[in-house]
């Protein structure tokens, strides 16, 4: 059936209008149809794999107004732009039609992310008179799942995981009516024809789920992009059981709050303090987890985020979550339903098996999830709220390149916080967060996402780019298993290129790439670098004094090793280190498994081990996060001397920090603040030297260390007062999630 409507007067202008951007999966065609009827325009609208073609026939002034309003009045979730406009000699018809999608069109594909439940659907969900009252899968063209249910493009129902749910007559009538807001809403359904929720052995699954939560049980809930593990956020015993079973003793847990008040945030505000920018993002279409400062005695269990000043908070974004939160009437811990570090689970049978030792009960549904999408995480740093993890609602993330690829490539990122990027021409599409590449399931999901991106966008990669570290799973896959010619990009050059390419400015940069560790050009572990140049042409200008790291990678979870090694390098000892047999000291003396590193992240680990008395940790960056949480005000610390090393690199010497960190006559807070002050001063001093020697004025900050708000904001203030231009990533995280994009940018700019 081809929808059409007879409209107004005879045409004297026939114009072909092509629109590009976010115009698929957002109700754009019915919007065009209604706008055409309103203006008396004849012609058609057609979906062409990411572009929309509109033939508009009518009086010239009316066609002009119609063309302008196609952009100005577009649906909220869309962002159309005019790709081409031309007059044509096509004879006008007597109606305006929505014609079938052109699956063979060669156009700019846009794969929509998963959207939160819109206000219209929320009102229907709560309306006892509506036929979708309390239906957990209500949606329309302005909301609902997209990326996680699309099998192939064009985005039509037969190409989604909804193909197994034939429409009932009522839903079909809405689906085929161009005047209805569910016209071609591909996931449209109702309780008569759509997906259903269930709890084994329960006649009323939602009631059974809520009862389990009230009894302090742990519930596995299948959502849009995967499973959550859920429990009462006010019940410390329930939280403790979840931590024990998931083997996650300390890592902070996110909390989902019921909607309340005019902006939906009244209950959230009872528990945390929200800046305007945080509140706007929290209640916006992405509905991410936002890190916000907790209020004293906020009522949540103390073990939700132990030792930290912030809590990750978010709102229900699907009707299923909304119903659960409404019925429970309180905040719920909602953490990723996975084995820690792996991608979030999506399949009912696999989740039931692999989460059986964690969850007491399972709230399942029968709509297949085609690919996982974990919740995104944002934190306010500097003048805006920035992503720490991209996922459901904001990924796939499409970003322009200031350069153009000579042939399509697949960039596979690093080993931690994995993402995949598909790049062609001047476009890059970055996948949602995959996870750490340590398990067979992580590799399977990685391969699926890499394949799916190429299939969905109709772009076949001709080569693959990876991190230079030969021990990374992604490196081995690229070189041995991808079947494509492989090229490599150095870890910190990818970080630098990610910052420079995102901001798209030409000329030379100074980019500080501070993180844990990554392989450098001299085969040592870098991580405290200042690189001068531009994508494809970076030079190491400055760094930190190196030290040998006993145990290598073990130091990431055993920061006492970094603290002890700093002392040993200076000819002293650190009595607090837990090395009773002295084996680590012997290994260090004999240089056995003691790679040299300049990593700022390992310095932060060492500082936390000493100041916070945290010799071991249960998750990455636990110590530095607790060290930051101690800080309240900027404090000047010891000046670190700059010395040129034998390789010609200017290095900041961290030795003066040891006396500060171990000075128990000063409070933990004072030592933490002074340490941050010293590290911020290093960046300022190295930037000033780079300006004097190389003339650079533009400074970028990339790498996981700059997730530290207290450090980053101090650095930004210092640099701007010294009249530098300062840039942090805003579209992608500053951590290793941006490596895939940086690799693509590096190759496109000629860095191969």
Describe the structure.
Among the domains are: 4-99, 2-Layer Sandwich (Alpha-Beta Plaits); 197-365, Alpha-Beta Complex (DHBP synthase); 507-732, ATPase, nucleotide binding domain (Nucleotidyltransferase, domain 5), CATH 3.30.420.40. 30% of the residues lie in helices and 21% in strands. The strands form 5 sheets. Strands 7, 8, 9, 10, 11, 12, 13, 14, 15, 16 and 17 form an 11-stranded mixed sheet that branches. Strands 29-30-26-25-24-31-32 form a 7-stranded mixed sheet, sandwiched between helices. A 6-stranded mixed sheet has the order 1-6-3-4-2-5, covered by helices on one side. α1 (28-39) packs antiparallel against α2, α13 (491-503) crosses α21 (739-748) and α16 packs across α17 (622-629). The longest helix is centred in the last third of the chain and has 27 residues, at 668-694. The two termini are 52 Å apart. The model has no long low-confidence stretch (mean pLDDT 94).
